[in-house]
Design brief:
Elements lengths: L22 H10 L5 H5 L12 H16 L4 E3 L9 E6 L2 E14 L2 E5 L7 E7 L2 E7 L5 E7 H14 L14 E2 H5 L3
Zinc ion binds next to helix 4.
């Protein structure tokens, strides 16, 4: 079990979601002659399906659990430690979940709650998520499983599965609810 480093970015360093980049913004990037660096791009990458569940993958999942716990996170996607494969780990009520190629097959209801991300420290915001989701995935032995999550587990599942498609919670923050650490330490 090895501790991996989580790639962390400041909110302003994150490239906008694909298709959301305003023309003026891309022009500005070009004008500066500074193409976005690879590490910034990886969080916007669509992670690839895991083709084979083997010891190497199980080791990666263990490293992800170690890393998530060290960072006091509720979940972690492989892409957050620089591995763009469709694998996520979550901790829910002391139980560790390891999901490979997870897909949300059912979603219902709505919940509004505060979110943050280990990859974008210091940023928080309210995000609307389904109240309940059913996820289909492979377990760490390649066996198909289904998992139902409600409340905070549904939120964590949506957040992590979004990472696999290059979607970040900052894309979904309800306008006017974004909080940065700086705002907290320097009120007014
Ligand atoms: Zn995240």
């Amino acid at each position: 079990m090895a501790l991996r480093s989580i790639r962390q970015y400041k909110n302003d360093d994150i490239i906008p979601a694909k298709g959301k980049c305003a023309p003026s913004e891309s022009l500005r990037l070009k004008a500066k002659g500074k193409p976005p660096e690879a590490p910034k791009d990886i969080l916007r990458t669509r992670s690839e399906e895991v083709a084979r569940v083997d010891d190497g993958l199980r080791e990666l999942l263990e490293d992800m659990v170690t890393t998530m716990r060290a960072a006091n996170g509720a979940g972690l996607a492989a892409v957050q430690i620089g591995v763009p494969r469709r694998a996520v780990v979550l901790e829910n009520g002391g139980e560790v979940l390891k999901l490979i190629n997870p897909v949300i097959i059912k979603a219902s209801g709505e919940q509004l709650g505060m979110e943050s991300c280990l990859s974008i420290p210091g940023v928080y915001g309210m995000v609307m998520r389904p109240e309940r989701v059913v996820v289909k995935a492979l377990d760490e032995y390649g066996k198909e499983m289904r998992l139902e999550g409600t409340a905070s587990l549904a939120r964590a599942l949506c957040h992590e599965i979004d990472h696999l498609d290059g979607v970040l919670f900052i894309d979904k923050i309800v306008p006017g609810t974004r909080i940065c650490n700086n705002d907290l330490s320097n009120p007014g």
